[in-house]
From TrEMBL:
Residues annotated as domain Beta-lactamase-related: 12-333
Name of this chain's protein: Serine hydrolase
Molecular function terms from GO: hydrolase activity
Pfam families the UniProt entry points to: Beta-lactamase, DUF7586
Presence of keyword Hydrolase: yes
SUPFAM superfamilies: beta-lactamase/transpeptidase-like
Boundaries of every DUF7586 domain copy: 364-444
Organism: Knoellia flava
Length: 463
């Protein structure tokens, strides 16, 4: 559903103000809701000069490290096909490097301890060689694999090589054929094509510009090579929001945005983490995923609200799938910390997400499980929300939702009980006796002696 003219005008004003205040040669942005691009805006020119060609939603910018998310999805597709396991050591598929002992999962989540940058010249500003050249330069590890989060561009060069070896063709060809074309992302390329912004550096103390170089990064390309547009990256934001169009299963996407390693910054509370290729943020109780991008001359941001639960992270009502993409052609700026969030907050304030009305549709046979239960003397309440049995409050203590597997077998979906079995135990007459949750007994009355409580119940009873 398109936004109102008043909302569009306000968003245009926010974007124009951001371009002026942050001294950006050009900036282009888009907002996604319900799997669709509902607003886009652009300010400035491709070369940052008056009279130059104006940028728009079809102008290419370099996305930088957002490239890594495409490589990660390509790797997970290989996993889902059974071509690899995340616990596999890199050497099992790509022998002959100093990265033999790191796992694929560790590479995806930046926990392999691999050095952040190359051992050669500044790779972001100089043409790159092939994989053998990168290996020969002495790329290795800085930390024991699995010890900690350590962001690594060279680690994603290794993942790009992994894709090439297993698919037997260049990594971008795989990304194009398996991801971009099915999603209709026809303006995403490894080098600028058609209308494209010039990468620029803005002098910190004067209103003058310096062009940044553009090149083929070679083996390092999977870490930050791709160019794209607001229109195309909005489709990738919709993908992250759940519109995967059979490119990836919903379960695998959910696995990728699970926090694997926190981003530990001394003196700061943990708000960021990294999943399998995706950055994940917890902002005031709201879960977001996406990625940032930075290359000489360009900055980029992709951020999507993942869930309906918790807050919205910006003080405004929103919905799962609301997302923002933003590009600018400057090397250094604080714009990514402020402007994307301001655009998303503005949309949510002026046009809250539609609310789906509640309708009855449950089955009365679940009533035998609803109501009060006791774990020992502790009181818990079971209720049904849609198809899920909810025991306690998810996110608080050991509260969790449960999905029915079959008959009286359920499985936990949240927190402590994620993946743990819940069984409904019945009496001979078929009535419900008690619940067995990962060996814990939940009974209708505290320590019901007829419910086979492990350890027994003192025969003298309560006194």
């Amino acid at each position: 559903m398109p936004l109102s003219p008043a909302t569009n005008a306000r968003l245009d004003h926010v974007l124009a103000t951001g371009q002026r205040d942050h001294r950006l040669p050009a900036v282009a942005a888009g907002l996604v809701r319900g799997g669709e691009l509902v607003w886009s805006g652009a300010v400035g020119t491709v070369d940052g000069r008056a009279g130059g060609a104006a940028v728009d939603a079809d102008t290419q910018f370099r996305m930088g490290s957002i490239t890594k998310t495409f490589v990660a999805v390509a790797v997970m597709r290989l996993r889902d096909e059974g071509r690899l396991d995340l616990s596999d050591r890199f050497v099992a598929h790509v022998p002959g490097s100093a990265l033999d002992d790191v796992s694929i999962e560790q590479l995806l989540s930046h926990a392999a301890g691999v050095q952040a940058e190359t051992a050669g010249p500044w790779w972001e500003r100089t043409p790159g060689g092939g994989w053998d050249d990168l290996v020969g330069s002495g790329v290795g590890t800085r930390f024991r694999s699995g010890r900690r989060f350590h962001y690594s561009n060279t680690g994603y060069a290794a993942l790009g090589r992994l894709v090439e070896v297993l698919r037997e063709r260049p990594w971008f060809d795989v990304v194009r054929d398996e991801l971009l074309e099915p999603l209709g992302m026809t303006r995403t390329t490894p080098r600028p094509s058609g209308a494209a912004a010039q990468g620029l550096a803005v002098h910190p103390f004067a209103d003058v510009l310096l062009p940044e170089p553009e090149h083929d990064a070679g083996a390092m390309a999977p870490a930050g090579q791709l160019w794209t547009t607001v229109g195309d990256l909005s489709r990738w934001a919709a993908f992250l929001g759940g519109e995967t169009r059979d490119v990836l299963s919903a379960d695998t996407l959910a696995e990728m945005v699970e926090p694997h390693h926190v981003v530990d910054e001394p003196g700061q509370p943990w708000t960021g983490s990294h999943g399998l290729g995706w950055q994940v943020w917890n902002v005031d109780g709201a879960r977001f995923a996406g990625h940032g991008g930075s290359m000489p001359g360009f900055l980029a941001s992709l951020r999507v609200h993942l869930d309906e639960s918790g807050g919205n992270g910006d003080g405004a009502p929103g919905a799962a799938g609301d997302g923002v993409v933003l590009f600018t052609n400057t090397t250094a700026s604080k714009v990514l910390k402020e402007l994307p969030r301001e655009l998303l907050r503005t949309m949510r304030e002026l046009e809250p997400a539609p609310v789906t009305p509640w309708v009855a549709g449950g089955s009365p046979d679940v009533l035998e499980l609803a109501g009060t239960w006791h774990w020992g003397p502790a009181v818990e309440t079971a209720r049904f929300v849609g198809e899920h049995l909810v025991l306690g409050e998810p996110g608080a203590g050991r509260g969790s939702r449960f999905r029915r597997v079959s008959g009286d077998e359920w499985v936990g979906l949240d927190g402590y009980y994620t993946g743990e079995p819940l069984r409904v135990l019945r009496r001979e007459d078929g009535s419900v006796s008690h619940l067995d949750l990962a060996t814990f007994r939940f009974t209708r009355t505290p320590y019901d002696p007829s419910a086979d409580v492990p350890g027994g119940v003192d025969e003298r009873g309560w006194a």
